[in-house]
Design goal:
The complex is a heterodimer. Chain A is built from eleven helices and 14 strands. Chain A is an alpha/beta fold. Chain A has a six-stranded mixed sheet with strand order 6-7-8-4-9-10, with helices on both faces. In chain A, strands 1, 2, 3 and 5 form a four-stranded antiparallel sheet that branches. In chain A, strand 9 and strand 10 form a beta hairpin. In chain A, helix 3 packs parallel to helix 5 and helix 4 packs across helix 5. Chain A starts with a strand and ends in a 6-residue tail after the last helix. The radius of gyration of chain B is 20 Å and the shape is globular. Chain B has one domain. In chain B, helix 2 packs antiparallel against helix 3, helix 2 runs parallel beside helix 5 and helix 5 packs antiparallel against helix 10. The chains are: A alpha/beta, B mainly alpha.
């Protein structure tokens, strides 16, 4: 299937005057119509990359094309709705009035403001001053502003930041609602569960470098079987004899087998007949979290 | 451009800083009239030789009187407003919201400058209106006949005050953009207006018996003073002629406005918004 790209970067690099290399030769490609998750630990370069996409900061080198235009080009901006590093609005104006300011800027009617307020479920509270809103309500105003011009591309930078679990669930639902077939959503996050649930493809950035970019399924990899047994060395020997070195690996005290779960009965029989105690034998699937920690070199649970 | 102006007006029309500043300048003008009225009626309380002339407080003199409030008080208020308008866009994170919509950076900047100038004009009208209303009260209580200044003098007064507020407002805007912060901008701006500029000019004037006075005359404060000193009459007593011609002062002040606005536009266009 032919995919058209809506965001394309080549060797995108941002080096600050102090010598800090925030983004290092990123080749990123977001396809039209997909929900793309941009993953990375705090300080990895996610926000800097997104700021370059919308023209807020200039790349040191490399090229960027967003919806067919250079970043910051008014013609391109007209097709992009973004929420970068938290919602920025006037605290002395109401949520509704803030959206009307944006509506005036982008040339849409105030009727559209009311429609969007309903979509983000802020209609009844839109008359209150923005400065008095909770974090969740502020995020909703930010998403509403991003959607006002009915953009082809929506860029949301950490939209769940500061939200409680209920707020995060509501934000996930909202993102699913807005990502209809012809709209592309580029969402950055360090919340892996969130990304796994809503994204078609992901890019993982670490220390300014894009370390991988693929579908969630490709990234998570093939399914397998997990075995926990004692003594583990002896169990590993038995399983290696059964399936070969390339299939067996040991991680965190358990044995991972790249095989289908149909072999489980035979595995259990062989291990127990060899006098090995089996405490756990089940199908396993790598989570995005496992992949993320592996790719970024971050320590799990740290 | 129209869209930007519309959006800037929507967000600034009820901005507390502008509303409060307009109120403050009106109150200061009223206070100025009240104290001078008292001093005119009680010459013994005045430290000014000959006391205050009550004739200077009547409606025909209100434009000349309003000039006293334009500099440095009005100028200081303009610096504060400019610094707040430009600096708070960064601290609230609204700069990125504005720049990621549809307008280019310079269009956004121009829209902001237009609305800032509209507000400077509103503050100027408030200042003159407060002076007119106060003079009317004085004349009413004193039983003096009401006579207004000529329209041409009113127009000149309006233009002079607007120009002085614009110079200092543009300085505030430039500093707010430079520091990406209101507090630092208004601190530096007010220090320049109320202390630094005065000290530097006094120093320059003192060197070599005033051989470099021309250099001191390039400062905006000197030109503002020179322009305002042309608004006087016999009611205010004898005055010393300014060392800068009014036309020169107007030209220098216009150059300051343009320079501050161009510098701020350049900073906004070139720098990253982080």
């Amino acid at each position: 299937m032919e995919h058209t790209t809506i965001v394309e970067t080549h060797s995108l690099t941002k080096r600050y005057g102090s010598g800090v290399l925030a983004v290092d030769s990123v080749d990123m490609s977001v396809r039209r119509g997909e929900v793309y998750g941009f993953l990375g630990p705090n300080g990895a370069g996610k926000t800097t990359t997104l700021r370059m996409l919308v023209g807020l900061i200039r790349p040191t080198s490399g090229t960027v094309t967003v919806v067919g235009h250079a970043p910051g080009d008014p013609a391109g901006l007209a097709k992009i709705g973004s929420l970068i590093e938290g919602p920025g609005f006037y605290p002395y104006l109401s949520g509704r009035e803030n959206l009307r300011v944006v509506a005036d800027l982008v040339g849409v009617s105030h009727k559209r403001v009311e429609e969007i307020l309903d979509l983000v479920e802020l209609g009844s509270r839109a008359g209150r001053k923005f400065g008095t809103y909770s974090t969740g309500m502020k995020q909703r105003v930010g998403v509403a502003a991003a959607l006002l011009k009915d953009p082809e591309l929506v860029i949301l930078d950490e939209p769940s930041n500061g939200l409680d679990p209920q707020g995060m669930a509501e934000m996930r639902k909202l993102i699913k609602d807005i990502s209809h077939s012809d709209r592309t959503v580029l969402i950055s996050s360090h919340l892996l569960g969130e990304v796994e649930q809503i994204c078609d493809r992901v890019g993982v950035i670490s220390n300014g470098r894009l370390v991988t970019q693929s579908t969630v399924q490709e990234l998570v990899g093939e399914k397998g079987v997990l075995v926990k047994a004692q003594p583990v060395e002896q169990a590993e020997d038995v399983l290696t004899r059964m399936f070969g070195h390339e299939v067996v690996s040991r991680q965190n005290g358990s044995i991972h087998l790249k095989i289908t779960p149909e072999n489980s009965i035979e595995i259990n029989r062989r291990l127990t007949s060899a006098g090995i105690g089996v405490s756990e034998l089940r199908p396993y699937e790598r989570s995005l979290e496992d992949v993320f920690f592996q790719l970024t070199g971050e320590k799990q649970g740290s | 451009m129209i869209a930007t102006i519309k959006a800037e007006w929507r967000k600034n029309r009820f901005r507390p800083a502008f509303l409060v500043s307009s109120g403050v300048i009106a109150a200061l003008v009223a206070f100025f009239y009240a104290t001078n009225w008292y001093l005119a009626l009680h010459p013994a309380a005045s430290q000014r030789p000959g006391g205050t002339n009550i004739l200077a407080l009547y409606p025909d003199q209100f434009v000349n009187n309003a000039m006293g409030a334009a500099y440095p008080i009005g100028a200081a208020i303009a610096i504060v407003l400019g610094a707040l308008l430009a600096g708070s866009e960064y601290s609230w994170g609204t700069m990125k919201t504005m720049l990621t919509q549809r307008s280019g950076r310079l269009t956004t900047w121009l829209g902001r400058v237009v609305i800032f100038e509209v507000w400077m004009a509103i503050v100027t009208v408030v200042l003159l209106a407060a002076a007119a209303a106060s003079s009317l009260v004085v004349a009413g209580f004193q039983g003096h006949a009401i006579a207004w200044p000529a329209m041409v003098d009113l127009g000149k007064g309006f233009a002079a005050v607007l120009l002085i507020l614009s110079v200092n407002g543009a300085l505030g805007l430039a500093l707010g953009t430079l520091f990406k912060n209101s507090a630092a901008a208004l601190g530096v701006g007010l220090t320049y207006l109320l202390a630094l500029q005065i000290i530097v000019v006094q120093f320059i004037d003192a060197v070599n018996n005033g051989a470099y006075k021309w250099l001191g005359n390039l400062f905006d404060g000197q030109n503002a003073d020179a322009l305002l000193s042309t608004f006087t009459s016999a009611a205010f007593g004898p005055s010393t002629p300014a060392s800068i011609a009014p036309n020169t002062a107007v030209t220098v002040l216009f150059i300051y406005v343009a320079a501050f606005l161009v510098i701020a536009a350049g900073l906004l266009r070139q720098r990253d918004v982080t």
